[in-house]
Amino acid sequence: MGRLWLNYLHVFFALTAYAGTAYLCFRRAPVAAATGFIAFAFWAFAEALGIAINIWGVNELWRAGYSAADAQAQMMICTSIHTFTGIWEGIFFVVLTTFLAGTLSMGIALFRGDRLQRSLAILFLLAAPLTLVIMLDGYFGASLSAWIAWSYPILQPLSRALLGVWLLRAALSVSNERTVVE
């Protein structure tokens, strides 16, 4: 359960970072920045919805009540859990397609900047083929899990860390400008 709660909270932290990124890129690339943020907002909604159902419906209600239920209720709970698996697959497809649109758009929005920002843009753009590979593997039967297994654990944390550094640098820059003006 702890992993689910951490994943749920992560959605809102990530969306906040994407909002800051869109804000900082909006002057130079308004269409790409706005499109990226809108896509990430849909991503966040779909991901948070799926995780919330998993926390409260699947784990807190169905699984928790399974052992105390009679045989008929247990069968209904099993059916509900299997039904949710299918629903989650549909929600996760929305998660992946909106994440794909967000990473492509935000990568384009970030591309015109200094070296750190361009590096961040490249990482965002690299997330697009990774997302496509995840979709091909999970939904279209391609056997690409080995590629996902080594690339995802590297690309995602590196991208998030660099995004945090870039946002912190931007925040400190704004803070320093305000201090000079005052």
Provide a descriptive summary of the structure in words.
The chain has 182 residues and is mainly alpha-helical. The chain has one domain (2-181). It has five helices and no strands. The chain has helices at 2-25, 30-66, 71-110, 115-139, 145-181. Helix 2 (30-66) packs antiparallel against helix 3 and helix 3 (71-110) runs antiparallel to helix 4 (115-139).
SSE layout and pairings?
Elements: H1 2-25, H2 30-66, H3 71-110, H4 115-139, H5 145-181
Helix pairs in contact: 1-2, 1-5, 2-3, 3-4, 4-5
Shape: elongated
Mean pLDDT: 89
Oligomer: single chain
Number of helix segments?
5
Tell how many strands the DSSP assignment holds: 0
Number of domains: 1
The percentage helix is: over 70%
Sheet with the most strands, sense and barrel status: none
Strand content: under 5%
Summarize the structure.
The protein is mainly α and 182 residues long.
Describe this protein with a few key phrases.
elongated, 5 helices, 182 residues, 0% strand, mainly alpha
